[in-house]
Batch of 2 targets.
Target 1
Amino acid sequence: MHEDFIAWVEQHRGTQYDLHTDHINPTFVKMLKTIGFDRNYTRGEGCYLWDGAGTKYLDLLTGWGVFMLGRNHPKVRQVLRQVLDAQSPNLVRMDCSILSGLAAEALVRHTPDGLDRVFFCNSGTETVETAIKFSRCATGRQKIIYCEHAFHGLTTGSLAINGAEFFRERFGDLLPHTEAVPFNDLVSLEKALAKQDAAAFILEPIQGKSCELVADGYLAEAQRLCRKAGTLLVVDEVQSGMGRTGKWFCFQHWPEVEPDIICVAKGLSGGFVPVGAVITRPRIMDAVFNSMERCVVHSNTFGQNDLAMAAALASIQVIEEDKLVENADELGRYTMARLAEIGKTCPFVTEVRGKGLMFGIDFARPENSLKLRLAWDMLHKLNFGVFGQMIIIPLLKKHHILTQVAGYHTEVIKFLPPLVATKQDMDWFLQAMQEVLADTQKFPGTAWDTVLGLAKNVVKA
Ligand SMILES: Cc1ncc(COP(=O)(O)O)c(C=O)c1O
């Protein structure tokens, strides 16, 4: 065993891309190198990352939304150290742990009355698998209605309700009895519910792949229609929950909405230990665990582990004490308003949308510039979906801001700043966006050369 484990790891620093090529995912390494994202990050603190050369980066990707408290939050670290040192009786399994009890109690402080039972698991997709099973069991029905363009995870159950063919193709038959409806379309939802055979309607109140938000009034009406049809309303708040949108849960922007099941993960971990939680009503939970024989009929080995529960508890406390929900709301309003103003100066920008600190910028073929339209067409003929690289590559390379396109085959770039970000951080980002968007209008120019070169490479690869 290495006495100084960190020193031993540091001795190997720099070999990670070769190791990943040999043993993990060479195609991913190739992609990183192609776009210049192989940065050899060595440290993370708060909203920032540092690479081996000491360059500081603003992290607006936050590990796909995990680092809501920023990286390595000192209060959560302190709690985790204490739990490790306490040699707690972790995962006894044939007992009830105090930490999971406290974590469940803390979580349901922020949900509507009646949503006070929690099932803990290990990831976002597992919350969705759980919601599917709970809904089917509680209603005795099979069908799950979901939205086009939805993303609920990549295990086979949640993949069956993924709204993009790209993720599903090549993986064979998935869960049967699913039906997609267009997002924000109540008429289609009513039609899908009409046969009264759906166990659940599941949706993200703000879709992660597009930053499309439910329209005002949509969720309340969807809830009414679901109740009428005996269908459970499931909100997937894996990405939008824990304060990200300026409320504890995004559905709470509409006070009359009280879903039957809430899926939470990502930010609940504090960025430390994988965790997911399904929050639901007693009658739903009791339908699943309806006898002593069935008291663990849905379960997992690592759910409720002490480190995950402590990280969750500490994260909830930090979000409460440091008023991070309020910060997400205020800073989100400021940033989106400024970004929309900047967007108006760029003919490629069609919309800035989102809620709180989950927002995106959408690009499309420009209508009022022949030159830029030709450039757009040339690029799209080579490769659809590469345009976003013209934004994210210079954001990283020139402005040291880490971002990513919102999904495959999309022209949306999504930003998920940590909830601890400040106005100064957002000004760093806004200034950078102003420059990057200005550069997209210089055709021919370096930004276009880079992205056209990239599109040709991707075509060849
Ligand atoms: C809304 C939503 N649901 C589910 C998931 C799946 O979570 P995980 O990657 O932890 O399985 C994600 C992941 O991005 C998500 O955004």
Target 2
Amino acid sequence: MTEKMNAAMFYAPKDVRFERTDVPSPGPGELLVKVRAALTCGTDIKTYQRGHPVIIPKTPSTFGHEYSGDIVEVGEGVTKFKPGMRVTACNAVPCMNCYFCKLGHNELCEDLLIVNGAYAEYIVVPERMVNVNVYEVPDHISYEEAALAEPLGTAVHALRKCRIDLGDTVAVLGTGPLGLMLIRLAHLQGARVIVSGKGDERLEIAKEFGANDVIDIRDVPDPAERIKMVKEMCNFGYGPDVVVEAAGLPEAWEEAVDMVRPAGKVVFFGGCKSGTSITLDTKLMHYAELTLYGVFHQTPDDYKRAFNLLTSRTVDGRQFVKETRPLDRLIDAFDEVKALKAIKYAVDPTQMN
Ligand SMILES: [Zn+2]
Ligand SMILES: [Zn+2]
């Protein structure tokens, strides 16, 4: 008889069922990991609400992608890892062989292997991932902290791409989990950080992470007013050197372009709904020489750097995860994150009521 495990199964938007399913078994080169912490993520919350054609092409399906746990079994030929090791893995791994991988743009890999299924007691880590994007977690770091390497890697990718100089002023628009990570990283790179976002608690945390000035968008709901405020705060009224959009809204993309100083840099971090577009003032683009960066996903190098930042606690992951709950409280956790009651929760799939 095959062993059974706890799993959150996605059937349809707003229809997730907590079931007992078969424990998968690892093939050659693969790992079987007992998940000890799986984090809530905005992508999973969106998937729960409206489905996701790429992450969940067919249903029912397991989901969840920010996790760490214990290796319980290794497939034939695995030498780098052993049962009993605590590990964390990225959510995706490039092929290292396609046109874009060879260009050094692993984030645009045409054959990205995406792994899903962290909201379950066991997960199989495929061979390609094992070879590239799995790390052993040191004893002093919790499972919850280690699982943050995946989202943090995307923030690392964004800020490595735009390059911040010591003494720059960086405005971050948005105080979601990734907005907060971007704030922390911009601060670490020696920038003065101005933040606009919402939620008293979020803005307090933004300050703890290194934000020098915060604007609550509920107090200043007019974007034109916010742009004026931020410009007046820095560079003799010309505006920030870098603006990072982390809200994922077309109107915030436009706000970022209008806020940055001439010859400044704008980073479009937040993914907007597909089919949306923004309007750019050609005169501004031409005469103000703006540089715009689209950023997506991360490379194995970004992931490794994110993991290093967490294990050294240069980025203190303990500030991100509010508490760990049994698996079947996953939907409550999604709702509470949406209500800004926490940055993230972890679920422990070994626990189910
Ligand atoms: Zn995520
Ligand atoms: Zn590739």
